[in-house]
Amino acid sequence: MSKQDLLIQLEETILTLTLNRPERLNAFSPDMILGLTNAIQEAGTNPDVRVIVLSGAGRSFSAGGDVKTMGESGAVQVYEHIGRLNELIVTMKDCEKPIIAAVHGFAAGAGFNLALACDLIIASEDSQFALSFSQVGLISDGGGSFHLPRLIGPHLAKQFFFSAEAIPAKRLYELGVINHLVPLEKLQEEVGKYAAKLAHGPGKAYAMQKKLIDHSLTATLEEILEQERITQTMMVQTEDHQEGIVAFKEKKKPAFKGK
User: Fold this and answer.
1) How far apart are CA 238 and CA 74, in angstroms?
2) d(C-alpha 185, C-alpha 106), whole Å
3) Exposed/middle/buried for 152, CB within 10 Å: 0-12, 13-18, 19+?
4) pLDDT single digits (tens) 120-159
5) Per-residue pLDDT tens for 179-224?
6) Which residue among 24, 46, 109, 111 has its CA within the 20 to 30 Å range from the CA of 161?
7) Rounded to an integer, what distance in angstroms lies between the CA atom of residue 153 and that of residue 7?
8) Is the entire prediction scored with pTM above 0.90?
9) How far apart are CA 189 and CA 98, in angstroms?
10) d(CA 202, CA 102)
């Protein structure tokens, strides 16, 4: 990839994707968005990948859109750019592997929304978030208008979008947006531990549960109940379920294979 805007590393079964424009606080570039989309699509069908970690190089996770280049693109270019970003967000939703955002420093604008599109967020205690679109006369992109209201409710989401105020990680943790807060110096270690735990878990069950939860946001109770019934009927036939039952009876740790 030109300029190496995205670093890709597979260690055992954990795929780490690192946004790599530290001189721009990892503001998005076309190469970065395309690279993320392709990497996550490939990971979704790669049996060697069990968990995906999304992080940022340098001082911050991501500043989102590149403010320095804003105003240089016409409407057609913006429409195409947002289309590429939309494809990334949908790819993340469709991916059956758990995606963890490891956030430090600042996550602003679409960078914040990128973290929201992940399945879990682990952040450093001193990190800060902001939906800074209104500061430059824009609305949210990258799915923030979808994800955030469902996590914290419409009134508070509107406040954060309207004000563009900096939001301390602690507040988002208290609101249930962030899953775990850790000291900055332990962020990489703790993310690694959590990713390893998921990597050794029942991957097939994680994939199906992710789909059910995501669909529940727009489905009726009756629809989810029926999907649970159908899915559970399939899950009892998996190798992981059989392994889990045997391990439980023998009082040992299950060796799940994600099958």
Assistant:
1) 51
2) 16
3) middle
4) 999 999 999 999 999 889 999 999 999 999 999 999 999 9
5) 999 999 999 999 999 999 999 999 999 999 999 999 999 999 999 9
6) 24
7) 35
8) yes
9) 18
10) 22
